[in-house]
Please model this.
Amino acid sequence: MSIDSGSKHGMWSSRLMFIMAAAGSAVGLGNIWRFPYLAGENGGGVFVLAYLLCIAFIGLPILMAEILLGRAGRQSPIGAMVVLADRSGVSRRWSVIGWMGALAGFMILSFYGVIAGWAMAYVPSTLSGDFVNISAEAAATSFDSFILNPWQVVGWQSLFMLLTVYIAARGVGRGLETTVRYLMPALFGLLVLLLAYSAFTTDRFVEGLAFLFQPDFARFSTDSLITAMGQAFFTLSLGMGAIMAYGAYMPKGSSIMGTAGTIALLDTTVALMSGMVIFPLVFANGLESSAGPGLMFITLPIAFGQMVGGQIFGTLFFVLVTFAAITSSISLLEPAVAWVVEKTSLGRARSAALVGAIAWAFGLGSAFSFNIGADWTLFNGMTFFDTMDYVSNNILLPLGGILIALFAGWRLGQEELLSQLSEDQRWIPVWRFLIRYLAPVGVLIVFLVTIL
Model:
């Protein structure tokens, strides 16, 4: 029987606030840092096409399933899966979905906080004019000297994590909702401003659009498809427990299909707009589009440093990245915080402080991977940072996605399902086909190819 008594952690004040919060979870470094450099490395338009197809036919159905499970369970992802397994008459072992999500989110936060710290550090550097007329060699040297200094990297990581913990400690209403209420409109406003800057101050805007939106199938490869699938998962925050945790605070009576579609649309729009901002700047300055992870921290400072108004607009860009990182990091912390609140008497603030301190300490391994711990390897020659990235994105997220699809499609009780999708009944057959067959099979194929 479906029971909806609300969440003990609080509730979003409206469907709009849930959309903004979930979009904030999805919109982060995956859109503004990861998507552009992956598109640059994987053929531009052909990668974007594969990415959009993965979002529509695999990402969106699983996103709906996560929201559905979260709202039905009304607890942390771990607690929600125990409750739903009991109601559906299946083994409590399905709670592994919640444990894997919380672990994946924790692992991602360990390196996410480090990269976000880099973005924060670039705000004062860009504003002070450090990158004005900078050469490619000097930009690379500046970035290398920064990440090679463990005290600087840990200092900025610590500042970012303190901000994340402070917001999480204030709870759903005063913390999470208040943050996304202001940061999300600011994020979109900054992105529109930067898009106009890219369009009107460069003569390569059309070339940037063509790179993103004209697929060159000669550049298509299996690797492009696998990377696109992984990016779709990462950017929608799937399998991390974040969307399930946020779904627990979603008001009853809101369309899950409409809400998930809006979140996916906002998330994809930000990713595409980020590419439309970045690639014209790269092409206008004769830089390399396939610069990899250094695209944001080496290539873009060079571009902004050569352009009229680049000092101001470059600063705004890194403020944008920081805002996006904050809205995502609080969602990565939330599943574990919610679980500690449920299982202990610590209360919200102390639970957030405890979980945040553990996440910060865990993140030191990632921070040191670029300097004093560069030679410390866990397995297969990978640093701590590389290991966290590989295990979370290539193992935990896909496995979590497969299990979510299987549970929602095959094990969740019919009454529970119909209750949660009561506003979307005409779409249930389509969603059920996608979540039962296409989504898990697609993710499984990519998972096996990646591992093997």
About this structure: The chain has one domain: 15-451. The first helix runs from residue 15 to 26.
